[in-house]
Design goal:
Length: about 230
């Protein structure tokens, strides 16, 4: 091993592993290195003391990712733009757990219903997935009940059946097949997505599945808004 690289391998994974890492995976490792006393935070100098070629490219990708995410920033008055420092945001999420939570939180889409953005997104960001799903579908119930006072006190699948059933006031005058399709859509979504979270603690393993459920709730809110 080249002696000039020896000190850095105590902080970083083996070359073969580095080559397989995405910027968001290598970035936290690089940031933890930067937090060490005496660590090199000049991008040019750092690039001179790590293996060249593809390894160096992976580290520069990770460096750029940290910069783009706001975890590091260029030092003031550095005319060459190579000197960096760890930002307050970077200091706050130096632990691997916080980085993982941040990455998962970033999967939450923009532009959903304002209430979902305000109330559901923070729950998702904290990893409280079952509550996030429940809260998203609760908003559907709230808006459906607001359209018909006779629906007060009803919830879940029973509310959907009563609202969109043959005797319901919602979509009154619409073709029977259309009403039945909407009822099936809403009752199916509530049975699959909302009910498990309402009646027991659900352990979601994949945040992307949670996003899918919340997006389903968002589409149902759009439908309710058009009624």
């Amino acid at each position: 091993m080249n002696q000039r690289w020896a000190a850095y391998y105590q902080f970083f994974p083996a070359d073969a592993e580095v080559l397989q890492m995405d910027p968001w995976e290598l970035g936290p490792v690089l940031l933890r290195y930067m937090s060490q006393n005496g660590a090199m935070t000049n991008r040019f100098n750092f690039s001179q003391v790590i293996p060249s070629g593809k390894i160096a490219e992976r580290f520069m990708e990770a460096w750029s990712w940290l910069d783009r995410e706001g975890f590091i920033a260029r030092k003031p008055n550095d005319l060459q733009g190579n000197d960096f420092f760890i930002t307050r945001a970077g200091r706050e999420i130096l632990s691997a757990e916080d980085f993982q939570a941040r990455r998962k939180a970033d999967t939450f889409p923009d532009g959903l219903d304002p209430v979902l953005m305000r109330t559901v997104r923070p729950l998702f960001a904290r990893g409280d997935y079952d509550t996030a799903v429940f809260r998203a579908f609760k908003e559907i119930e709230v808006r459906i009940r607001s359209k018909d006072a006779a629906l007060t006190g009803w919830s879940g699948v029973d509310l959907m059946n009563r609202a969109f059933g043959p005797n319901g006031n919602l979509m009154k005058g619409s073709p029977a097949k259309e009403r039945a399709s909407i009822r099936d859509l809403f009752t199916g979504a509530f049975s699959i997505c909302r009910n498990p979270s309402a009646h027991e603690e659900v352990k979601f393993d994949d945040p992307r599945e949670v996003v899918d459920m919340i997006c389903t709730a968002n589409q149902l809110l759009r439908i309710v808004g058009r009624i």
